[in-house]
Design brief:
It is built from four helices and eight strands, in the order βαββββαβββαα. With 176 residues, it is α+β, with helices and mostly antiparallel strands. The protein has an eight-stranded antiparallel beta barrel with strand order 1-5-4-3-2-6-7-8, surrounded by four helices. The longest helix has 14 residues, at 137-150. 22% of the residues are buried.
Length: 176
């Protein structure tokens, strides 16, 4: 199963972070709108990512809900009928929730840098350092930490869980 070392942090603003990321980037920016629907899954997380009306990706992944660099195991399958697939999955399993975001993607070496503006949450940085290429697990964790430092992101900004978890926690807080 493909694996990344992932890390996610809340940032003050993407505009503030951009001058740190862009000069180091080997490629990007690529801007993409993403609409993720999460479905119940006992072995990890299952989401359908809709990129446009004829392009989507069903993604299963498993990772610990902890701050800091952590392994994320994933598999995915593309679809040309994301709305039809969402309907079938929702009928079969129900929906846990939806996350809509705009993502700006850069690449520094092998690392994918995501600058995310998440509806209802704000701005985030996500790093994905792939394993199995030139980097082993320890080197990938070191690379993630090196990039966080280069971008000026402090340990206290790191977040746990998925954006869906953060949205659910925010809505529970708003209800109180």
């Amino acid at each position: 199963m493909p694996t990344n070392i992932e890390i996610k942090a809340r940032v003050e603003s993407l505009e503030t972070l951009l001058p740190f990321v862009a000069p180091l980037a080997d490629s990007g920016p690529e801007c993409v709108a993403q609409d993720d629907t999460f479905f119940p899954c006992p072995n990890g997380r299952l989401k359908l990512r809709v990129l446009d009306v004829t392009r989507g990706v069903l993604i299963f992944y498993r990772r610990e809900d902890e701050a800091g660099p952590k392994p994320s195991f994933y598999v995915h399958s593309e679809t040309t009928d994301p709305d039809g697939l969402r309907s079938v999955l929702a009928d079969a399993y129900g929906e846990l929730g939806r996350v809509r975001k705009s993502r700006t993607v850069f690449r520094i070496g092998e690392t994918r840098i995501h600058l995310d503006r998440v509806d209802g949450l704000g701005d985030f940085l996500e790093l994905e350092v792939p394993l199995g290429g030139t980097l082993g697990p320890d080197a990938a964790v070191s690379e993630a930490r090196r990039l966080l430092a280069a971008f000026g992101v402090q340990e206290g900004a790191l977040v746990t869980g998925a954006y869906l978890d953060l949205l659910n926690a925010a809505s529970r807080t708003d209800a109180i």
